[in-house]
Write a structure and sequence with these properties.
Elements (H helix, E strand, L loop, with lengths): L5 H8 L40 H4 L13 H4 L2 H4 L2 H8 L7 H9 L12 H5 L3 E5 L7 E7 L8 E6 L4 E3 L3 E3 L9 E8 L6 E5 L8 E5 L17 E6 L3 E5 L2 E4 L3 E5 L3 H5 L1 H6 L12 E4 L4 E5 L4 E11 L2 E12 L5 E8 L14 E4 L5 E4 L4 E3 L4 E3 L3 E9 L15 E2 L2 E4 L5 E4 L9 E4 L4 E9 L2 E10 L20 E2 L6 E2 L7 H10 L1 H15 L1
Parallel strand pairs: 9-16, 21-28
Antiparallel strand pairs: 1-2, 2-5, 3-4, 3-6, 6-7, 8-11, 10-14, 12-15, 13-14, 15-16, 17-18, 17-22, 18-19, 19-20, 22-26, 23-30, 24-27, 24-29, 25-26, 27-28
Helix pairs in contact: 1-11
């Protein structure tokens, strides 16, 4: 596709014109229980019936003593001694008193004082998390829990170095935050608290940035965002060309040459199996450096070349579609196309005919159904007519077309060194520069095609026939032997035709064989 010979190239030139990052935090929940103080029992206080175990000890009353004979008169005496067992039961020498007083004390929490709220413990229940992806352009918001519902909050967003980024409830990540981590500190009132408490979130992951192509001004651009609106680049044949594709992103973007057509992208594997790669979309002489994103080189092939470049950062990618227009260089001569006019415009038989391309230096390229060769000579039978077209080309054989549709079209002048040759504009396409030359006599005829300051001459072999009847297309007046124009000149004209029309007709003259040969040669060059 890109390795045709210079002659073929000149012949063919006439026919072509983020990944998102998520953050979650675990919440550590701490609980605290107020301790209950137990008041000690004061043993100096009177013992109540509930606290005195004396009744339980009365079952151990000592055995009755002997009663004297006059016991009836002394009976009240034991009643007066009744408190004595109580004193012994309260603090006996051989029994510990503590176990008997501990149980009743634990069952009486009522006198315990109400503890003061433990604010420090409850502060651990207040949390703040960050909602939003850690990448440029994302909106981060703080999600708080554990604060008083009626509390108002203060926010401070900061990077890993403590630099304050914002003091609002939300924060939109700026391009300057790339590769930073971000936290938010929220200050609010806890329930039943008398002072505010500040809680800080966990840090985000390092901030990333989806890739975006940059313009020549260093700012993100939408140029080339889709194939219908490609980035327009241009250069001239033979000029040194360089353009660097740049994209911002984090991680640092990488580049690759990509397919312009969606069909090719969908069938990339099949294309590569057939030896067709994205680099084949570039003109001969230009190369793409994936490590730097630079497209550079020198090309001599005039056409518009469509391709794409993809930048990838992490798991996110962006593609820029490009239309590179390679224009012709300065005029260097005239290239001529000629073929037998018989049946050319009547039937689509161009595949069966031979076409000759004459370069500015007079060298010839012969196109036929059987061969494509450098060399040969235009040949026609006596009495036959050649249709001739030509136009300005640069030194590489690229046609020069005026992009200004209102500019006058420069059409060629055709002359012959044989006075009897009949030269006239083609009756169908003469206004576009096609000239018919009829040859009444068999011999070698030298034709000259001129336009402006340039001209190209070439020989035509007219083969004799047994009997030839020539019907001139226009009246032929006597002519001198020296080359003269016989009606074929249209020179500068105010025709409505655009500058490309003469070359479109030139393709018609060359026929489908030219296009087929060009494609074949380019495919062979790829192998």
């Amino acid at each position: 596709m890109h390795r045709s010979t210079s002659a073929v190239r000149r012949a063919c030139a006439v026919g072509t014109t983020v990944a998102l990052v998520g953050l979650t935090t675990g919440l550590g929940i701490m609980s605290a229980t107020a301790a209950s103080a137990v008041e000690p029992i004061d043993s100096t206080q009177p013992v109540t019936s509930a606290e005195t175990p004396a009744p339980a000890d009365t079952t151990e009353t000592p055995a009755p003593t002997e009663v004297p004979s006059d016991a009836s008169t002394d009976a009240p005496a034991p009643a007066e001694e009744t408190p004595a067992p109580t004193d012994e039961a309260t603090t006996p020498d051989d029994e510990p008193a503590a176990p008997e007083t501990t149980a009743p004390a634990a069952e009486t929490p009522a006198p315990t004082a109400t503890p003061t709220p433990d604010v420090t413990a409850k502060a651990a229940d207040a949390t703040v998390t960050i909602d939003g992806a850690a990448k440029v352009g994302s909106l981060l918001s703080a999600v708080v829990t554990g604060f008083d519902e009626d509390s108002s909050y203060k926010y401070v967003w900061a990077d890993q170095n403590g630099a304050v980024l914002s003091k609002t409830a939300t924060y939109r990540i700026d391009p300057t935050d790339v590769r930073k981590t971000i936290t938010v500190t929220v200050t609010g009132m806890l329930p039943d608290a008398t002072d505010t408490t500040a809680v800080t979130s966990e840090a985000t992951a390092p901030v990333t940035q989806d890739p975006a192509f940059l313009g020549t001004d260093g700012k993100p651009t939408k140029a080339g965002a889709d194939a219908d609106h490609p980035l327009a680049l241009s250069t001239a044949a033979g000029d040194t060309f360089s353009y660097t594709f740049r994209a911002q992103g984090s991680p640092e973007p990488t580049y690759k040459l990509d397919w312009f057509e969606s069909y090719d992208a969908e069938n990339a594997a099949e294309n590569e199996e057939e030896g067709y790669f994205p680099s084949d979309q570039l003109p001969d002489g230009l190369t793409f450096d994936a490590s730097t994103g630079e497209l550079s080189g020198v090309t001599t092939w005039v056409s518009e070349w469509d391709f794409a470049v993809t930048a990838t950062s992490g798991t996110a990618s962006v593609t820029q579609y490009v239309a590179l227009n390679v224009e012709a260089g300065a005029p260097a001569g005239i290239m001529v196309y000629t073929t037998d006019r018989a049946g050319l415009f009547d039937d689509d038989d161009s595949d069966d005919r031979t076409t000759w391309i004459i370069e500015p230096d007079g060298s010839v390229i012969t196109l036929s159904p059987e061969e494509f060769i450098e060399g040969g000579r235009p040949t026609i039978e006596q009495g036959g007519t050649l249709v001739v077209a030509g136009g300005l080309v640069d030194r590489y054989g690229n046609p020069i077309v005026d992009d200004d549709e209102d500019a006058p079209v420069l059409l060629p002048t055709v002359t012959s060194d044989i006075a009897s040759d009949v030269i006239a504009p083609d009756p169908d396409f003469g206004e576009y520069g096609l000239v018919n030359v009829t040859f009444p006599h068999a011999s070698t005829h030298n034709l000259t095609v001129a336009a402006g300051a340039f001209s190209t001459s070439f020989p035509v072999e007219v083969q004799p026939t047994a009997a030839t009847v020539v019907t001139p297309t226009t009246p032929v007046a006597a002519a001198p032997v020296t080359p003269t124009n016989r009606g074929g000149q249209l020179a500068y004209t105010g025709s409505d035709a655009t500058g490309a029309l003469p070359w479109a007709l030139g393709l018609l003259v060359a026929g489908a064989g030219l296009i087929g040969a060009r494609t074949l040669r380019r495919r062979r060059a790829q192998r």
